[in-house]
Amino acid sequence: MMPKIIVARYGKTVLYSFLGGLLGALIGGSIGILSARNNDPTGWSEIPNLLSGLIYGYGLGVGAGAFMLHFRPHPPSAFSRAFLGALTGLFGVIFLSAPLHLDFFPPLMWGLLILLPPLISAGLLVSRYDEK
């Protein structure tokens, strides 16, 4: 019975992380495109700023979504574990994309950028508290 509970909580945490990431990506993309319009009137930096806002907003949104689910029982450690997991997954893919040649197959790189932060964040949050 215990593995079903862990799998259910893990799935719920991944879902909340993913939904928080989508909301964060929308907010980050909006900030990126608005800052590009204010800083560069020629319009050449809109797409790069939009993409960087989407990526970093998604990473922060994943951490926020996982934290909101685990806010009540474990407030200080849930915050650090949620954001540490999300940013570890995000920056791991960003920094390892060149050495692992992920940039030659963009669907794999984008898939890892989308899937890895919620999975790591949920793994750090659920496994610690449900082993008891």
Summary?
The chain has 132 residues and is mostly helical. The protein contains four helices and no strands.
Discrete helix count: 4
Instruction: Tell me the structural class.
Output: mainly alpha
The H/E string reads: HHHH
**Overall 3D form:** globular
Largest sheet data:
none
Q: How many domain modules?
A: 1
Number of DSSP strand runs: 0
Return the average pLDDT rounded to an integer: 86
Q: What fraction strand? A: under 5%
Task: Please give a structural write-up.
The structure is a single chain. It contains four helices and no strands. With 132 residues, it is mainly alpha-helical. 82% of the residues lie in helices and 0% in strands. The chain has one domain. It has helices spanning 2-39, 46-69, 75-96, 106-129. The radius of gyration is 16 Å and the shape is globular. Helix 1 (2-39) runs antiparallel to helix 2 (46-69), helix 2 (46-69) packs antiparallel against helix 3 and helix 3 (75-96) runs antiparallel to helix 4.
Which helices and strands occur, and which strands form pairs?
Layout: H1 2-39, H2 46-69, H3 75-96, H4 106-129
Helix pairs in contact: 1-2, 1-4, 2-3, 2-4, 3-4
Which labels suit this protein?
132 residues; mainly alpha; 82% helix; globular
